[in-house]
Write a structure and sequence with these properties.
mainly alpha; AhpD-like; disordered C terminus; about 60% helix
């Protein structure tokens, strides 16, 4: 695969600079993922807009949002996002033991968090067709229909970054190095050319 550059404000297409600046203001630096996405103004703006909508207009708490994002990234075996969101999850109030469990695809200690993890995982694995039993278990855990759709937003958001990282082999930022994750990726057999 050809190398994807990690753009800076100086090298990014003009249509991407606004998001690079916003990321630098929010995080104190522009993460490599944003730098890679900046190659396509459409991609970087879509990613940023979905992320802001998920965080600002969704019904899930910051900790629940991170559980969704880590669950999606775990199913998709995204090394970059698992590292980046491990620290973010802890900062959002997910207990350290549960962060480890998310990284290892294990059950979470809080039943509500676990219902969210399981439901998100099923949405991804079943390509948006969770079973009726999964939906019922999610609702029984205290979530509502709005939260079902908010999970779908989180899945869309992380799928953009997970797939970008797989294609571009985004280098991990030093800020996330303490959470580096090797994970496992199942072999995928191509269905066509």
């Amino acid at each position: 695969m050809d190398h994807f550059p990690v753009h800076t404000l100086e090298s990014a297409p003009s249509g991407s600079k606004q998001v690079l600046e916003a990321a630098a203001r929010r995080y104190g630096f522009a993460p490599n993922l944003i730098g890679v996405m900046a190659e396509s103004p459409a991609m970087v703006h879509a990613y940023w807009a979905i992320g802001e909508s998920f965080a600002e207009h969704g019904s899930l708490t910051p900790a629940e949002q991170q559980i969704v994002l880590m669950a999606v990234s775990r199913v998709n075996a995204c090394r970059y996002c698992m590292a980046a969101h491990s620290g973010a999850a802890q900062a959002a109030g997910v207990p350290e033991d549960d962060v480890r469990a998310l990284r290892e695809d294990q059950s979470l200690s809080d039943p509500r968090f676990e219902a969210l993890r399981r439901f998100t995982k099923q949405v991804v694995e079943r390509r948006g067709e969770p079973s009726k039993e999964s939906i019922r278990a999610f609702l029984d855990a205290g979530f509502d229909r709005r939260a079902i759709l908010d999970v779908v937003v989180g899945v869309a958001y992380k799928t953009l970054s997970n797939y970008t990282n797989h294609i571009a082999q985004t280098p991990l930022d030093s800020a996330f190095a303490g959470w580096e994750w090797q994970g496992v990726r199942e072999a995928v057999t191509p269905t066509g050319t």
